[in-house]
TrEMBL record, chain A:
Keywords: ATP-binding, Nucleotide-binding, Transport. GO terms for biological process: peptide transport; transmembrane transport. Residues 272-301 are annotated as: Disordered. The lineage of its organism: Bacteria, Pseudomonadati, Pseudomonadota, Alphaproteobacteria, Rhodobacterales. It comes from Thetidibacter halocola. Residues 10-259, 306-552 form the ABC transporter domain. This is ABC transporter ATP-binding protein. Belongs to the ABC transporter superfamily.
UniProtKB/TrEMBL annotation, chain B:
Residues 86-286 form the ABC transmembrane type-1 domain. Belongs to the binding-protein-dependent transport system permease family. GO terms for cellular component: plasma membrane. InterPro entries: BP-dependent_transpt_permease (IPR050366), MetI-like (IPR000515), MetI-like_sf (IPR035906). It is a multi-pass membrane protein. It comes from the Bacteria. Keywords: Cell membrane, Membrane, Transmembrane, Transmembrane helix, Transport. The keyword Transmembrane applies. The chain crosses the membrane at residues 16-37, 88-116, 128-149, 155-172, 216-238, 259-281. It comes from Thetidibacter halocola. This is ABC transporter permease.
Amino acid sequence: MTASVPALDIRNLRVEYPLPDSDSFVAVKDLSLHIAPGEIHALVGESGAGKSTVGNAIMGLLDRPGRIAAGSISVAGKAVDITTGRAQGIRQGRDIGAIFQDPMTSLNPLFTVESQLSETLRFHLGLDRGKARARALELLRAVEIPDPERRLKHFPHQLSGGQRQRVVIAAALSCDPDLLVADEPTTALDVSVQATILELLRKLASERKLGVLLVTHNMGVVAQIADTVTIMQNGEMVESGPTREVLSQPRAPYARALIGAVPRMDRRLPRFPVPGDHDQAESEAQTKVLGDAKRDTGPAGTDDLLRVEDLSVVYGAGRLFGRGEPFKALDGASFSVRRGEIFGIVGESGSGKSTLAGCIAGLIKPTKGSMAFDGQSLGERRSKAMHRAVQMIFQDPYSSLNTRMRVGPAIQEPIDFFGLADRGRSATEDAKLLLQAVGLPVDAASRFPHAFSGGQRQRVSIARALASRPQLLICDEPTSALDVSVQARVLNLLKDLRDRTGLTILFISHDLSVVRQMCDRVAVMKNGRIVELGDAEALFDAPQDAYTRELISLIPTLDHLAAPAA
Amino acid sequence: MKTGTIRRKRLPMPPYVMAAALVGLAIILAAILSPLISPVDPTDNASFNLIDAELPPSWLEGGDPRYLLGTDNQGRDLLSAILYGARISILIGAGAVLLAATIGVSLGLLAGYLGGWVDALVMRIADVFLSLPTILLALLVAGIARAVIPDADSVFWAPIILIAAIGINEWVQYARTVRAATMVEASRDYVRAVRIMGLPMPSILFRHILPNVIGPILVISTINLAAAVLTEATLSFLGVGMPPDYPSLGTLIRIGNEYAFSGIWWITVFPAVTLVSLVLATNITGDWLRDRFNPKLRGSK
């Protein structure tokens, strides 16, 4: 191994973005990396860590003002000219293959699979049409696409997400590169698809002696396929080494905190272990501002707060000239949510979990079925009290707040609308207390949403949802867009709110490990149906349904590595 | 991926835009202040005399120092007439834009938010309006108004009729733009959040969605202001606009046009130059504003 030329060798890389005021922002600081042929090296870190910048620097794809200020990069022994990103004999697409996050946008929608693949082949290798096609077929077989002859003639929109990503991988491999840069290759994919793509990458790396730089934020993915790992923070390497070693016994404090924040699949912890977690002012504010709501809701216990019966949502039916099969987004879902519990709904994309949330929130009109909230029917037209009682927070922290409205007035709006300010506090004070209750500084009220990070915005959303003192809070993928350490804190906050104020939470997620950590009871959905429902512990330890079992087995986790000290 | 916070550079204002903005502002300011700065009040019949008719600008042979830009066929001071005319033109233009924006934005918000048959209806009506030539429709509206209102030519009614006739044409552009932007905003989570809250629809539309779609509206408005001033001039030129004793820029150009070929060019040229400068200035400024507020163009330059 020592004799072979490394697939990638980075020494003391420094990437800078010049700022208007003659200063410059250092995106990557003094980074050295070494990838042997056939090795998968993972580059992990939270957003802003500079991990994607490294990948872009290798491929000469840095965003405009950015430049490599110092250091050297060589791919398979050939040095990359760091000023232009090119080198004698090195060409992107030939020596370096690239895979990006979104398989939809990395393929040209107007090209067939064949023309996507053969374009590179004919350009870089000078193959004629016939040979290019033969080679394209060979590549499609290598990435294990079923029925490759037929697929050649297909356009990207005719392929599923996983197949598209396979085509992207095939294109990246077309010229037998020495190095593959994979930037979040499975982030946009469902777990079951993710598992197969990871398996493919692993196989290709070993078979073709391909060095892979895997840029990702997902620790589970790293644990699954990476041989070595580098953890980055603020552009600097924090820790680097063999995956097993780094993930099971992280030495650097940041690495330890990051790994501790990853939700575990094997057992449930009372809270996520994150540093600086406990805040006295926060918990006091929670009790003060929301504690009185607890008494309103009656005793916590076994009675049902929400009952959903045979709920269905069908699209495309009943239209006069409707063509094609009606699509059942939700197919006869029945369940009930107990007062004061966190009820989880898990499923892959298209399983109908968000449709279900929309129905309960009153955003989507069910085609069939009934819902009852606290004994009262929950229909399309809702009383003001009903609007008050059911609130929701959303996935995307960037679209869930009105960018033109300051945070204070946004939280105050429901307080004023429902006339809740008559409890001896003005609406302004109430809004400030709510901000405190979700762990934000009081002066946040006078700022606009763009002044906040993703995690802070999600806290603002929670404060706004809590402002009407709801009994049920629907959380639709509340942390999917957040970094793990931020996710851990937000999830801890939701748990605290439930514990201190008796809030009932309907928790929707595609991430089974998060659900395991959060929920008391869980419903698993597939194709609009609930396939399994039960107590979280029982369901995760001994899943009854085949699909549930499959889902649980496919999640990339850290569990097979020795557990880090929690 | 964006790494760190790199402040986006604002689109710089090129010198020609700066010049255009200054010219536009100067004309608008002069028009607003016309009662204070113009030598005489051209609408006052006592202020002019037929003896002074058709005098050339003061620097030409036969010019009178009292009349800097000469006089029109009635002996009116042309400078004063242009200042007052620009005022009435801009007033009508702004009124028409305001009317069009109010109709268009309201219908666009409704269509984009409600969708379904409301959307279909509004957009089909918009298509019908788009298929009618602006001037034809304006003539139609002006014609009907004249038939209905007895003193349509009065100083009070004429501008109102013109505002209605021009404004009714321009709403389509607002409606289409606002509808598209509203559809995007309505699917965003912050709108869903206030829907869950049960907020009444006007509050959702005007308090939450409108501030997020207002950017393009302002841009369209500047460009439409120029178009409206031009339409007003055209209508007045055709004789259905402002009455001759209270001339707008268009009326002045029409009057001047009758004399242009007998060597009395100034009656038509000076108001025309004013009109062209005003329209050009607002168009250039509006174009720049459009680029400035278009996030797709931002940063690429």
